[in-house]
Amino acid sequence: MLTRQDEAFVAGISGIEWDAVELPSQFMENWCYHKNTLLSIAKHYETGEPLPEEIYAKLVAAKNFRAGTFSLRQIRFASVDMELHTTYDPSGPVSVYDVDRRVAEKTQVLAPLPEDRFLCGFSHIFAGLPRFD
């Protein structure tokens, strides 16, 4: 978002260690709760009126809503990742989806739908692989 680069290999998050990619988003997520900072930039797009105090209070109150659910989500990600990379046998009778379902049943409040294919979009398990471009 903040780069101006014609070369794709050095633009955005290209060439950045994967662990460092999360830093800006975490910084932005938490920085926006700093009252003075947020109120200095949060203006109505037409009137320029500042963010009302009661809206800021609601934003802060909602900050940790469902924090436990999000923690469980991260535990699922980590548990599936660890199992697939340590004990899973691709030639065995258990599919990667079976592993994910078993882990999800232990870590999620609601069981995934039968057609859930979360793993198809779980790119974190492939992050850090060598690039060949």
UniProtKB/TrEMBL annotation:
Listed cofactors: Zn(2+)
Domain Peptidase M3A/M3B catalytic: 1-128
Transmembrane segments: none
GO biological process, one term: proteolysis
Gene3D superfamilies in the cross-refs: Neurolysin, domain 3
Alphabetical list of SUPFAM superfamilies matching this protein: Metalloproteases ('zincins'), catalytic domain
InterPro entries: Neurolysin/TOP_dom2, Pept_M3A_M3B, Pept_M3A_M3B_dom
Keyword annotations of the record: Hydrolase, Metal-binding, Metalloprotease, Protease, Zinc
Single GO MF descriptor: metal ion binding
Domain of life the protein comes from: Eukaryota
Cofactor binding notes: Binds 1 zinc ion.
Protein family (similarity comment): Belongs to the peptidase M3 family.
The protein, known as: Peptidase M3A/M3B catalytic domain-containing protein
Organism from which the protein derives: Aegilops tauschii subsp. strangulata (Goatgrass)
